[in-house]
């Protein structure tokens, strides 16, 4: 890899795994042990009987490294499928964020106005705080947080990206 | 996951978890377990006591149990089996597990665990064994339900032996071993695993692309590795058939020695850091390279940017993650080496295009010039035994004896000399720690080989430093009357460390001198073995002959030249054509400089 002249790119990788103890540790251990980047990682069961989990990993590297990441993931015993959504065609990427803004007076008015513009919902309010819920791309959430920072951004909780390919093709086992 | 047998609910359970484990081992064909008892695995030891199908070999350290199982596995092609207790038993096994992972050796290691209700409570001899061994195994399991015991054991053997083989750990809490558990048979081979399905049959389109490239090759090379040996003896036979069909030169990796006969005129010797001059220059100069079951290890490629700069590369490997990991290749083929070789032979014969015979003849003329360099020559004169000479005489005398011979090694200079000067004509005869480079591997590995092949000649070629890392296994050898021969090249140095310090660190021999060595003759005798010693060249042959004639464990202490270096050598970070040759090999076809460096 030392001589890999390739350009860095970002990759959104969906992994279908057996929903069993230790499977997330295997995936995370693989990334830390081999020095791959994790920009975000989400995981939850996705089938009716909770035997399958879907892990969405946003990572980056040269083409050779991303190919390695996929091959290394694919050879883990509890891994069913690995799909590089970045290569699979048009796909949707969304993230959910809960954003707490604390303040009084005009700051509250401005916070609500910006939230409206970003289609963020108020899910909790007190006389001196709001919690907004918003979904969107990481860039949209970043932009919203940046605007809220001078107004009184107090706390942010984000899920990391989940993603799915557009159209009728589906990633299943 | 519910894998309970449909019969389990209707039949009364009569077997304990431990008995189910043993039954599953037996059904998986296990004949020998290498292990060491302790509190958490007492139920399994109790079950072992009450049966005769599986033999237990009591080692003296858990690391040795794993290496012994590796030696057993590598010399038979079967899955090796290990049994250790929880906590320190498991952690002591970790080095061996990683060794087996790096060298793709199929093992199943059973570890005891504290009872399920105590897991996570820092109980006595508790360790997070699945956590610790996760990056040291191909896969691991913690069994938390009695109904999973049999299924997990069967699955572990399947995972260990299929695809790219490797070690699998099954962590067994003590209550699971004591409680009654249902037995289920192994699933039929036709029933695929839910998620694990390694590819073994090659894509024929890729095979045809590879053959088309090879047909046009003017300067080809076949670079064959441990994947050929892991595929089984038939793959080695097919490698020979393909090589003879094509007339191509063949080089083997350290792991691949024996996959192609050393006596074959098309064999170039080992390649890589301490490979032969001809093998490395062929790799550097080739126009088409066929990598069959090797993984472009850094000890093989040297400087990646200068590795085989003009070659189209074909890479056949059973592990898709090995492809394009270190070296970008032109034609990848995923599959089992034996199946790929069979397909290539078929396509080669069907393809009407003739190979480049004239160019190949010119290539062989060039290779013969490189061979004429005689890069493994050494000068044995006077009384002091050259280590190369000791290995060469060992090889010649064992050949004369005509006995089936298996060689293991420790790690260091002696290992490289063994690889260079001992010839192997068949696969599964050479056991060495290649990927991890584990000092202390050879003696326990030899033990495992001797268990599998009681009548064969099993020799651990060792260094005086490495051998001390698992010397306690002399007791195991003597207990089970295993007539392993330990052939120590004793130069009173950690020789490879000393060599690097000489060449790269200004001769500052920091901590590499073997001070306060034991008297190896007396050491052997104290373990009830036989000790022999050669201090002069004139004694060497007699000591070797006496060693071979002795039907007991032997340590032969061969006192060799202390400052001998292992050549040829590609310094770390250098290219194949920047090899350092031994003293007295200046000049020749390649224009060697005074420093012994070659630039072709």
TrEMBL record, chain A:
Query: Does this entry carry the keyword ATP-binding?
Result: no
Residues annotated as domain ACT: 12-87
Q: Supply the InterPro entries for this chain.
A: Acetalactate_synth_ssu, Acetolactate_synth/TF_NikR_C, Acetolactate_synth_ssu_C, ACT-like_dom_sf, ACT_dom, AHAS_ACT, AHAS_small-like_ACT
The Enzyme Commission number assigned here is 2.2.1.6
Pathway annotation: Amino-acid biosynthesis; L-valine biosynthesis; L-valine from pyruvate: step 1/4; Amino-acid biosynthesis; L-isoleucine biosynthesis; L-isoleucine from 2-oxobutanoate: step 1/4
This chain's source organism reads: Falsiroseomonas selenitidurans
What's this protein's function? Catalyzes the conversion of 2 pyruvate molecules into acetolactate in the first common step of the biosynthetic pathway of the branched-amino acids such as leucine, isoleucine, and valine.
Quaternary organization? Dimer of large and small chains.
Catalytic activity field? 2 pyruvate + H(+) = (2S)-2-acetolactate + CO2
The name of this protein is Acetolactate synthase small subunit
Q: Name one GO molecular function term.
A: acetolactate synthase activity
Membership in a protein family = Belongs to the acetolactate synthase small subunit family.
**Keyword terms:** Amino-acid biosynthesis, Branched-chain amino acid biosynthesis, Transferase
TrEMBL record, chain B:
* Cofactor remark: Binds 1 Mg(2+) ion per subunit. Binds 1 thiamine pyrophosphate per subunit.
Keyword terms: Amino-acid biosynthesis, Branched-chain amino acid biosynthesis, Magnesium, Metal-binding, Thiamine pyrophosphate, Transferase
Q: What is this protein called?
A: Acetolactate synthase
Q: What domain of life? A: Bacteria
Q: What family is reported?
A: Belongs to the TPP enzyme family.
Does the record bear Zinc in its keywords? no
Annotated SUPFAM superfamilies: DHS-like NAD/FAD-binding domain (SSF52467), Thiamin diphosphate-binding fold (THDP-binding) (SSF52518)
Q: Provide the species name.
A: Falsiroseomonas selenitidurans
Under catalytic activity, the entry for this protein gives:
2 pyruvate + H(+) = (2S)-2-acetolactate + CO2
């Amino acid at each position: 890899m030392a001589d890999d002249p390739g350009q860095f790119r970002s990759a959104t990788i969906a992994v279908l795994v057996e929903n069993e103890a230790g499977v997330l540790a295997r995936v995370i251990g693989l990334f830390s042990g081999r020095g791959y980047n994790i920009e975000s990682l989400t995981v939850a069961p996705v089938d009716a009987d909770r035997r399958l989990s879907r892990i969405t990993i946003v990572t980056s590297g040269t083409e050779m490294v991303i190919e390695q990441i996929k091959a290394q993931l694919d050879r883990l015993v509890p891994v069913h499928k690995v799909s590089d959504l970045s290569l699979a065609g048009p796909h949707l990427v969304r993230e959910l964020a809960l954003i707490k803004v604390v303040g009084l007076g005009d700051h509250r008015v401005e916070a609500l106005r910006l939230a409206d513009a970003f289609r963020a919902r108020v899910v909790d309010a007190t006389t001196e705080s709001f919690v907004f819920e918003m979904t969107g791309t990481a860039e949209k959430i970043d932009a919203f947080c940046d605007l809220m920072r001078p107004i009184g951004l107090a706390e942010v909780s984000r899920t990391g990206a989940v993603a799915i390919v557009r159209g009728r093709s589906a990633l299943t086992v | 996951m519910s894998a309970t047998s449909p019969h389990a609910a209707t039949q009364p359970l009569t077997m304990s978890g431990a008995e189910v484990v043993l039954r599953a081992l037996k059904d998986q064909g296990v004949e020998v377990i290498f292990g060491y008892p302790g509190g958490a695995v007492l139920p399994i030891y109790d079950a072992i006591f009450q049966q005769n199908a599986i033999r237990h070999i009591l080692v003296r350290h858990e690391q040795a149990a794993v290496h012994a199982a590796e030696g057993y596995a590598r010399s038979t092609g079967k899955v090796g089996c290990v049994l250790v207790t929880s906590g320190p038993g498991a952690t002591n096994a970790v080095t061996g597990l990683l060794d087996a992972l790096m060298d793709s050796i199929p093992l199943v290691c059973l570890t005891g665990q504290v009872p399920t209700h105590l897991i996570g409570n820092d109980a006595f001899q508790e360790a997070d064994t699945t956590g610790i061994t996760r990056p040291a195994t191909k896969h691991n399991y913690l069994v938390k339900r009695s109904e999973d015991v049999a299924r997990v054991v069967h699955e572990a053997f399947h995972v260990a032996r299929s695809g790219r083989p490797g070690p699998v750990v099954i962590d067994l809490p003590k209550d699971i071993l004591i409680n009654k558990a249902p037995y289920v048979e192994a699933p039929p081979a036709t029933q695929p695993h839910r998620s694990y399905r390694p590819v073994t049959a090659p894509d024929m389109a890729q095979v045809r692309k590879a053959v088309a490239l090879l047909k046009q090759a003017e300067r080809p090379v076949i670079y064959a590795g441990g994947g050929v040996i892991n595929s089984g003896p038939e793959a080695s036979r097919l490698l020979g058939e393909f090589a003879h069909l094509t007339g191509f030169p063949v080089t083997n990796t350290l792991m691949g020695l024996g996959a192609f006969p050393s006596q074959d005129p098309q064999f170039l010797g080992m390649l890589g850091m301490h490979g032969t001059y001809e093998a490395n220059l062929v790799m550097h100069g080739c126009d088409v390279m066929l990598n069959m079951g090797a993984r472009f290890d850094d000890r093989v490629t040297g400087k990646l940017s200068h590795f085989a700069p003009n070659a189209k590369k074909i890479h056949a490997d059973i592990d898709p993650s090995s492809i394009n990991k270190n070296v970008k290749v032109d034609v990848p083929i995923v599959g089992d080496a034996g199946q790929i070789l069979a397909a290539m032979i078929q396509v080669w014969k069907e393809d009407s295009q003739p190979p480049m015979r004239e160019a190949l003849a010119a290539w062989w003329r060039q290779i013969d010039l490189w061979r004429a360099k005689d890069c493994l020559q050494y000068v044995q004169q006077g009384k002091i035994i050259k280590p190369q000479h000791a290995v060469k005489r060992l090889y010649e005398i064992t050949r004369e004896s005509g006995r089936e011979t298996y060689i293991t090694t420790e790690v260091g200079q002696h290992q490289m000399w063994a690889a260079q000067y001992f010839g192997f004509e068949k696969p599964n005869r050479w056991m060495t720690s290649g990927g991890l480079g584990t000092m202390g591997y050879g003696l326990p590995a030899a033990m495992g080989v001797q268990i599998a092949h009681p009548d064969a000649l099993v020799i651990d070629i060792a260094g005086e430093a490495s051998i001390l890392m698992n010397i306690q296994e002399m007791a195991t050898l003597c207990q089970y009357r295993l007539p392993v021969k330990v052939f120590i090249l004793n130069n009173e140095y950690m020789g490879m460390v000393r060599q690097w310090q000489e060449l790269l660190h200004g001769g500052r021999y920091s901590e590499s001198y073997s001070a306060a060595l034991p008297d190896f003759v007396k050491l052997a005798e104290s373990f009830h073995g036989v000790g022999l010693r050669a201090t002069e060249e004139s004694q060497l042959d007699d000591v070797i002959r006496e060693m071979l004639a002795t039907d007991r464990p032997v340590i032969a202490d061969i006192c060799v030249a202390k400052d001998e270096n292992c050549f040829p050598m590609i310094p770390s970070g250098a290219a194949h054509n920047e090899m350092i040759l031994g003293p007295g090999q200046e000049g020749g076809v390649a224009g060697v400089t005074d420093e012994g460096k070659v630039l072709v």
